[in-house]
Amino acid sequence: MHRILLCDPLDESGLEIFRDAGVELRQLGDGDSEREQLPEIVADFDAIVVRSRTQVTADLLRRGRNLKVVGRAGIGVDNVDIPAATDLGILVVNAPTANLISATEHTFALLLALARNVPAAERSLRAGEWDRKRFIGLELDGKTLGVVGLGRIGQAVAHRARAFGMKVVAYDPYLDPLVAKRLEIEMAPLEAVLAVADVVTLHLPLTDETRHLISAERIARMKPGSMLVNCARGGIVDDRALLEALESEHLAGAALDVFEVEPPVDRRLIDHPRVVSTPHIGAQTREAQERVATQTARMVLAALDGSLAVTAVNLPFRAAGPGGEPYLRLSEQLGRLASSLLGGSLKKLQVDLWGVDEELHGAVSIAAVRGVLRPFLGEAVNFVNAEKLAEDRGVEVVRATHRQAAEYSSLIGVTVTGARGTVELAGTVFGESDLRVVRYDDYRLEFRPEGRLLVLSNRDVPGVVGKLGSLLGEAGVNIADIHLARGSANREGEVDAVAVLRLDQRPAEAVLDRLRALPEVSKAQLVDLE
Ligand code: NAD
Above 60 in pLDDT, residue 254? Predict the structure, then answer.
């Protein structure tokens, strides 16, 4: 009989599924003393189920000698050490689609509350006042809604906004324009959306690229008197810049469910008279809680029974078969790197496999799909929904298998094509688990697909490496390793080259701009594969 430990409370609907399956269930007590014993208790269980409170650290996973599955009842897996789970062969499953409608509807709850001053009017009425003049609101009808991030929630919001008579204009550089066309949604560059929208609503994940996407400069480009709604993730908006824009009255108001620091320590935003806010409750509905609990319970049980048809965040060694895990990791990292280097919307992914064990073909190509989507879809992409998400977004996925490559016993090629061109990478596994990229477009080089990589295209002339070293050194950025490759000469005798540098620190955008300004450098991209 499977033994399952519930570390955080789970909705009754999920408990029922566990009980019906006849598993042994234990709920960890809420008191600190029992929580402190968790590292000892965990050793007896086959699976643990957590929400966001319990930190599933590498140490806790190691102490779970019998642990096979971690169920995360929700989307985000920030509180679970995924690489450690993968190394230990522990499957991590989550419930990524349970709260889409709840978050969509909450966006409107906030938007309408903001437009019609509902919270302030309610407070005034409770205080015994009857003041109708103070609460002159705005109609949504005829206004323009700027949707930033046109994924599942963004599309659902756009659909409902039309029912309110709103005009919708959206920005999503990673969505195939044909998908937007089919949805009959007008797409525009971010600056144009900000300039025309009466209300800007955010529906994108928090990634390296989207952190402070709504910065002071971008807020300044928003239409004067417009409003901002953030029901996505804290950190996408620079909260200080937003506060300043509200204080200067450049923005008429903001509705926020999420904050850079949660719960907010600096209360000036939530106390601001033109801010409507809620404590990250976008997913807090009866239905979403039930769906999270039932999806998680079903996934944990299926995973314990050895099914691969689960919404797994990782596919550990055990699931991929002996020796498979490094190939899955390589394929995913090649996908992440290729799609980050490409940038913009993706049309096609080709996965080429040379000499890779036939049993791994399916899993390796799914890992590549997950990898290419992750830079712009974040953690919501798992091994089960990756292919479906790619299909929904109009990305064609092609897999080709070949006999062993001449120079390597096995080789994985990932080629991505999109609006901005094509990027081709190939990699292999040295020894048991040493991952290497061995080709980037026409260049042959060798580097590990991990860490913070600075990828440069430059002219092959003396002194480039020295200049890079000084510029990064002056900025306090240490180069951990560097890999160079040169192409063939063009008619003028000029030779192009690429340099891949692994950095210990993340350089500031200004440092990258200075690198890009070097006459020998034609392109400099920072890709974080941590
Ligand atoms: P999704 O993956 O379906 O869509 C995200 C979209 O953002 C994608 O289409 C992607 O191409 C786009 N995107 C990525 N980077 C972008 C960029 N730099 N500029 C513009 N667009 C970009 O995700 P979803 O399920 O629709 O969720 C959207 C957001 O809502 C996520 O951040 C999610 O965590 C959040 N969310 C919040 C709550 C809550 O409680 N408030 C609940 C559910 C979801």
Answer: yes
